[in-house]
Amino acid sequence: MIRLRVKQAAEKQGVASAADLARRTGVAFATANRLWKNELGSEGDRGIGLLTLWRVAQALDVKVADLYEEDWLARRTALAGTAHSAAG
Question: What's this model's pTM, rounded to 2 decimal places?
Answer without folding.
Answer: 0.74
